[in-house]
Amino acid sequence: MIASCAYAALSTTLAQAQETPPPEDEQSAQVSDIVVTGSRIARPDYVSNSPIVSVSAETIENTGQITVEKALSQMPQFTGSFGQGNTGSTSTGLNGGQSYASLRGLGSKRTLLLLDGRRLQPSNPDGSVDLNIIPEALIGNVEVITGGASTAYGSDATAGVVNFRLKRDFSGLELSTMYGVSDYGDGESFRITATAGERFADDRGRAFVSLDYSNRERASQSERPFFISRDPTASLATIPQGSALFGSNRPTLAAVNALFVGQYGTAAVTGSGGFYSGQIGFNTGDGTLFNTVGVSQVMNFRDEETDEAYINGTGTQVNFGWNGGDVQSDNERYALFSRVDYDITDSLDFFAQATMTSFESNGVSNPTLASNVYGLTIPVSNPFISSDFAGLLASRPNPTADFQFYKAFNITGPRYQRYAYDVYQLISGLAGAVPYRDWTWEAYVSVSRAKFENAQTGGVSRSAVTQLLYSPTGGTEYCSGGFNPFGNNIPSTDCVDYISRRTLNTNELTQRMAEATLQGGLFSLPAGEVRFAVGADYRYNKFEFTPDSQLDLPDGTSDILGYSVLRETGGSVDTTEVYAELLVPVLKDLPLIQEFNLDLGYRFSDYSSVGGVHAYKADIDWRVIDPIRLRGGWNRAVRAPSVGELYAPISTGSVVIGSPSTTNTNGDPCDIRSSFRNGPDGAAVRELCLAQGIPASLIDSYQLGTAQVFALTGGNPDLYEETADTYSFGAVLQSPFQSPWLSDISMSLDWYQIKVEDAVGTLSIGNAIRYCFNNGGNNPTFDPNNYYCSLMQRSSSTGVPVNPSQPLLNLGQFNVTGVDLQADWRLSLADIGLSDEGRLSFAVAVSYLDSFEIQALPGAPTYDYAGTWGTAIESNAGSAHPEWKSVSGVTYSRESWSAGLRWRHLSEMRNSALVTSSTSTSRGVDAYDVFDFNARVTLPGETSLRFTVTNLLNEEPPQAGDTVGNFDTQNYDTLGRYFTVAVTKSF
């Protein structure tokens, strides 16, 4: 058994799909036929007409992780989707700490997760299911089908289905424990599970319960040298020393140089049209000033190196990096799974099943930044204004006006978010046989709920800070010593407490389901029996979100700097469906046609949100000769917008748009450093920037000064369904040779195309900003009324983008095509004449991505992102789309032990900016190769021991993009070498 299961990171279903059905305890009491994932019809042979992969329980264990996410994300068919690298903060707290599965890079909301063929409780308002609620200890195997399966399972199966098949018929007690730690001494994980089961009532009843506790600790960026080596030239505008911005009401250049040259003894400060945009910084302690990076060099910086500082006189701003971030989030989880089956009569069964999961995860991110739309204002009456600064203020055209102020609030420390989840699902039903032919039926009801709490600490109150800044005493009446914002001064604990805030958001999802199915044989044709399945179901999903009152002020604003206003919201969708499937044997026992079967399906769904929709499928299964089987077909899948997509709260989130240069398309196109302003259309770009609202006095010196904007996102109740057409065609090959060298070889090759129209998604504001300025030919006349331009408004005083919109829309389309190759070769050493009793197993799974085309809006240009890394047009599509992804493995096994080596490969990727700008110099991602080791041994007394080392050579992840120290934690191993040991004992 060890030899057949532990040979690689995954086992192809090629041989299993035709020879090895699921365990007998997973089969109905009335019929010995098997229900294959993707179909509702029980059949005597376990055959899939769609590309299918099966992952064994041993494969999941060999990843050395306490959750199933890594086993899936490492498979070639998947891309990274949150998971253990989900460590940062989110303003809404709707997904922190969760783990998702994203097939074909089409997003977790288009990947349907099932447990024994039944839907799970969604964990996110967009319909995604959190892998943390899967009972890993009970997984028998995981079956993955690529392509639309809406006919069989309804909405959300656009990219495919992941079906977790559980072990069931337990007898006795099984205990298992696991411990893991990284090579850097952090990221510890511990897990203990206990599963007990027994038969009762003369074997008519079967019951078992499984308890699972796991604890995964944080792993820090600061422990890993590749994170510590931050970019020494990365420019940040928001620094703990604070900086003042003046817009068009700027100090005169003469006053600036009178101070810098005459008093500080620096070289003259220069700038196009004046002193940059009037942005200056404040040295800590002595009240002197320095000019921030911009048109001029940095002059008179005197602070010691802090988290962000400057190299004096070089024009370089140094980012020493905030290395308090995590590469692995913590996760403490308690899980309970129980099931009872009872044969009421020989033809009637009862079952009840309960799943309960409670877990908590904590995220940590950089300290609060008061910048951009969260910038502060300070009056000229503030008592902490130095005489040097007062002289500059007095030289402005309006010397008594308030000025804008940016500051990183390192004084309050990093921001922490606690994510607490309680999820349960109760299922109960009956199954039985109809006294006609071999017909069987099943009916069940399900009730479930997911309740999330998101507690945020380390926030800073805008109103409290404003009170301190506008106080004539500097705030001494509010806190001891008052608050001096100029420089990286450390205020009293009393003042830190005065401005610090905690918030709590709650989010609740509920689901109710009822379903009934009937299946069996209808009649016989010359080629075999015609089989059918029919069913009906009802599904109700509800979403309720309650934000903290500090994030939902009566005047429509948020009092917490860096966190957007959040509105209480909610909604519900109910669905009624009927479906039918027909398996028709067409031809049999003819030359080159041993069997030719046709599988037809139809589903009608009536949604309270979008009305009636239809899904279809037509698949073929053609056994040419014994060693060769062809499969494929067409599926029409439909995905209705989820309750979250319809009703999610409008909120603002930080979106990175990059830093501008003359060789890339990053940043704000109006920035004088950008390729847009310095390109052949520079004059047209300048006019468009003026039309958008940048003041004429700033247009020739305008710099955004930050690499991010705060974009608005939220639900859209006017969304309609998206449709997908999936085409697949493949061959399943098994060796016809009798030689022991070749007899146990199997292979499958499948081509697929998934074309999604009216895709529901968020239009990335980074791309929208570029497209407004004709990147990729999207606005050739530089029309300020262009759709992409309409998504952005600018401040009339500073010109910076103010809450640009990332609308949730029915976008244009996806068109994803590729090829999957899977091969297995098993070899008994004794059979080839060696004295060794061992067995070698080789396996490889390779995916080639031929195209990943995205059209942002109907009629807009279509771009192919295959082989690229970076922000795609639709944010849910992920960032990594490698042309080649593979997992290969070799295992040597004997009767009681085995050892294996696995190789994971991702091909290099260009930066996605090259798709729309062939001259861009933005960096992509290098190829990545990682090796893992695993070993198992069976000990006396029904005890087994396993040992794994993931990332055996401690291969560092490749740099992602232009910023040194930036890595893609979703798709690459940022944890480093990791050791795991586990013991299982049965009684």
Explain what this protein looks like in three dimensions.
This protein has about 1000 residues and is mostly beta strands. The chain has a domain of about 130 residues. It is built from 14 helices and 52 strands. The chain has a 22-stranded antiparallel β-barrel. Strands 1-4-9-10-7-8 form a six-stranded mixed beta sheet. A hairpin with a 6-residue loop joins strand 16 and strand 17. The longest helix is centred in the last third of the chain and has 11 residues. The chain is elongated and about 100 Å long. The N terminus is likely disordered.
List the helices and strands and how they pair.
Layout: H1 2-5, E1 11-12, H2 13-19, E2 34-35, E3 42-43, E4 52-56, H3 57-62, H4 69-73, E5 78-79, E6 102-103, E7 111-115, E8 118-119, E9 139-146, H5 150-153, E10 160-166, E11 172-182, E12 189-200, E13 205-216, E14 219-220, H6 225-228, E15 243-245, H7 253-260, E16 280-282, E17 289-291, E18 308-311, E19 316-319, E20 326-328, E21 331-345, E22 348-365, E23 369-370, E24 376-378, H8 387-394, E25 403-408, E26 415-433, E27 440-460, H9 462-470, H10 493-499, E28 500-525, E29 528-546, E30 569-590, E31 593-607, E32 611-625, E33 628-639, H11 643-647, E34 651-656, H12 682-692, E35 708-713, E36 722-734, E37 745-757, E38 760-762, H13 765-772, E39 793-794, E40 801-802, E41 808-810, E42 813-828, E43 839-855, E44 862-864, E45 868-869, E46 880-881, E47 884-893, E48 897-906, E49 910-911, H14 913-916, E50 928-939, E51 943-950, E52 978-986
